[in-house]
Amino acid sequence: MLRTQFEEELDKLHNQFYAMGTEVLAQINKSVRAFVSHDRDLAQEVIDEDEVVNNYETKLEKKSLEIIALQQPVSQDLRTVITVLKASNDVERMGDHASAIAKATIRMKGEERVPQVEAEISKMGKAVKRMLEDALNAYINGDETTAREVATKDEEIDEYFRTIQHQAVESIRENPEAAFAGKEYFQVLMYLERIGDYARNICEWVVYLKTGKIIEL
């Protein structure tokens, strides 16, 4: 394969990964919106679309391994393929968590809810979405500096997690009938917090892509 053709193959990998990330970004947005608006139809839509993300990962994995086997890339080229291979796995897990949030929406039908807690979950969801969006932009632009800055936003997500969890506990104490909702709130908070962790992972892969160093941000 000529060098130009090989570079085109690498560009396709980048673009397919970014498309996968954009798809998951939309699913996270819809899953949180469905949860706080009690929209079971929208939640089911997210669940059904999880297969789209799985297919993206399968194709990216197949193409990455094919390039490694046939082209035996080295140095920067090899880092590019490894980055896509590893980062796509992180994005697929984000999609799983978005689907899990959607399933929580369906389980919550008819249960006592706490509007104040859900309002804060909505804010946390938007913060997670912004972080992932910024991480994907850092990836597509190969911007190591921005990636490092975006990774620090995980602290904001963790703070949301702690604050809302405490708020949910207090709400259940005041209204024991909301205990089932509280259990689901804790699960959704955990899913969002984990998505933040995976977004940070994307930032770490950007640093690896640019420097060849595997670090924790």
UniProtKB/TrEMBL annotation:
SUPFAM superfamilies tied to this protein: PhoU-like (SSF109755)
Domain of life the protein comes from: Bacteria
This protein's UniProt keywords: Cytoplasm, Phosphate transport, Transport
Subcellular locations according to the entry: Cytoplasm
GO BP, one annotated term: negative regulation of phosphate metabolic process
One Pfam family recorded for the sequence: PhoU
InterPro entries linked to this entry: PhoU, PhoU-like_sf, PhoU_dom
Subunit structure: Homodimer.
Recorded family membership: Belongs to the PhoU family.
General function of this protein: Plays a role in the regulation of phosphate uptake.
Protein name: Phosphate-specific transport system accessory protein PhoU
Source species: Streptococcus pluranimalium
Gene designation: phoU
